[in-house]
Design goal:
2 copies of one chain form a homodimer.
Chain A lengths: L2 H13 L3 E12 L2 E8 L9 E2 L1 E4 L6 H13 L5 E8 L10 E9 L12 E5 H6 L7 H18 L11 E2 H12 L5 H8 L3 E7 L9 E5 L5
Parallel strand pairs in A: 1-6
Antiparallel strand pairs in A: 1-2, 1-4, 2-3, 2-7, 5-6, 8-10, 9-10
Chain B binds a DNA duplex (30 and 30 nucleotides) through helix 6.
DNA sequence: CTATGATAGTATATTTTTGCTACTTTGTCA
DNA sequence: TGACAAAGTAGCAAAAATATACTATCATAG
C-alpha cells in the first residue's frame, strides 16, 4: 500500500460508520421445552449455519421498530411481548465488516404461532445456547436471553406471555418450571400468583382426569 | 449562531448508516446522595445544557473500549465497575442526525475520584433524572441507570463499588440506604452481608463515639 | 473521674415466606 | 363400579425477613 492509499483509507475509515443491525431471539415453549426461532443462513458468512432473525436498522425507523419489522417479516406475528437485551459490538463479530447488533428477545405462546413457509424453525434454546456451530455471536445472545428470562420470571409477569390468554394453573406452573429449571410445589405456586389471575367460569374437559379451572391474567388497575 | 441556524447548516442528508455513540453515566455518592457526572455542553445542539459523558464509537474499538476511553478522557479513572445499560435509537433523539447511543453506567467511590480541570461535575442524580432541561435523552438514561442500580443492589455486590476498599459497616449500610431510598435495620443488614465481608484488624478512631471495625470485601473463591 | 451524648454492635422476639407431606375431589375408562 | 390420573386444598415445620430492645465504647463537658 502506498502512502497515498493509506491516507485515503485512513481518512475514509475515520468518517466511516459501523453498520447497525437488530437480532431477535423469539422464544416459545414446545414439547415442554424452551425453544428459540432460528433460520438457516443461505449466504456467506456462516452459510448453512443457524442464526437469529435479524435485519439492518433502517434510517427511518427506531430500534424497536426494526425489531418488530424483522419479527413480522419472518413470522407474521405482531403485538407480542418483546424487550431489548444487549448490544454487541466486538470488532470481529461479523467477518465482513464492522457491525453492531442490538439484540432483542420476544416471547410468544406456541398456540398463537403459525410459522409461514420459510427457513425459520424452532430449536431447543439450551442446545443453541451450548452449540459452537451457530452463526456470529448468536449462541451467546441466546444464552444471554435465557438468563434474562430466568431472572425476570421471578419478579415480573413475563411467564404469562408464554401461555394463551386463557390458561389453567397447571399449564402456567409448567411454564414457570421450565423457565426456572426446577419443580415447584403446587400449593405454594398458587399462593404466589393468586393476585395475578382472574378466574373465568370455564373449565377444561375431555381428559381422563379431573378438569381444571381456566383463568386469565388479571389486568392490574393502575 | 442560534441553534436554528446551526441545525439548518447541519444538513448532512440521510446517510445509509446511523452514527453510533456511547454515553456514560458515572455515579458516585457524595453528601449522602447519589450523584452523577454531567458536563456543560459548549456547542450546539443543547448548548449550555447538561449532558452525559460520551463519544463516538471508533471503527477500531469495541463498545466497552469506547466507554472506557470516554470515561478516562473526562476523569482519568480506570479499572472501575461499569456495565452496559441500554441502547437508545429514537429517530429524533439528536436533532443533527440519526445517532444511536449505547449507554453505560459506572460506579466509583467518591474518595477515589479527583476531577481534573474541566467542565465535568457531579450533580444530584435524582435532580438530573427529573429535570427537563437535560441535553438529548440523557435525563431518561440517568433515570434508567438509577433504576438498574436499585434493582441490582438487592442481588449483586455493586454497592461495594461505591465505597473504598476498606470500609466500616455503618458506611456500607448508608450506601445501601441511599441507593434503596429507605432505612435498613442494622442487625438485619449485617446478617445479610456477613458472608461478603472480611474483617481487618483495624478500627476507626478519633470520633466522639464508639469506634467501628474496618472491613474489606471478601474475595469469592470460585 | 464521672455523667452524657452519640454511634457501634448484639440478642431476641415476631411475622411472613418457603419447603414439604398428606389428603380430598372429580373426571375418564375398562 | 372400581381403578387411574391429575386437580385442587389443608396444614405443619423450617427458614428467612422484619422489627424492637438492649449493651458497649469512644470523646467530651462538667
Amino acid at each position: 500500500m502506498t502512502e497515498q492509499e493509506f491516507l485515503k483509507q485512513y481518512h475514509r475509515e475515520d468518517y466511516d460508520r459501523p453498520s447497525v443491525t437488530v437480532d431477535l431471539a423469539l422464544f416459545t415453549i414446545q414439547d415442554e421445552k424452551l425453544k428459540v426461532l432460528m433460520i438457516h443462513r443461505k449466504e456467506h458468512p456462516f452459510q448453512g449455519k443457524l442464526s437469529l432473525v435479524g435485519t439492518f436498522v433502517g434510517m427511518q425507523e427506531s430500534l424497536d421498530e426494526s425489531a418488530v419489522r424483522a419479527l413480522n417479516q419472518k413470522t407474521g406475528l405482531h403485538d407480542i411481548y418483546f424487550e431489548q437485551l444487549y448490544t454487541w459490538g466486538n470488532l470481529d463479530r461479523d467477518p465482513r465488516m464492522r457491525v453492531i447488533s442490538v439484540s432483542y428477545y420476544a416471547l410468544v405462546p406456541s398456540e398463537s404461532i403459525q410459522l409461514p413457509e420459510g427457513d425459520a424453525q424452532f430449536y431447543s434454546a439450551d442446545e443453541i445456547a451450548n452449540s459452537d456451530e451457530i452463526a456470529f455471536d448468536h449462541s451467546q445472545i441466546v444464552r444471554y436471553g435465557i438468563e434474562r428470562i430466568r431472572n425476570k420470571v421471578n419478579y415480573t409477569d413475563i411467564a404469562f406471555s408464554l401461555v394463551p390468554e386463557e390458561f389453567t394453573l397447571p399449564q402456567l406452573q409448567k411454564v414457570y418450571e421450565i423457565l426456572l429449571g426446577q419443580k415447584l410445589y403446587k400449593a405454594n405456586f398458587r399462593k404466589k400468583i393468586a393476585d395475578k389471575i382472574q378466574p373465568t367460569n370455564k373449565m377444561t374437559s375431555g381428559e381422563a382426569h379431573r378438569p381444571s379451572h381456566i383463568y386469565r391474567k388479571k389486568e392490574s388497575i393502575c
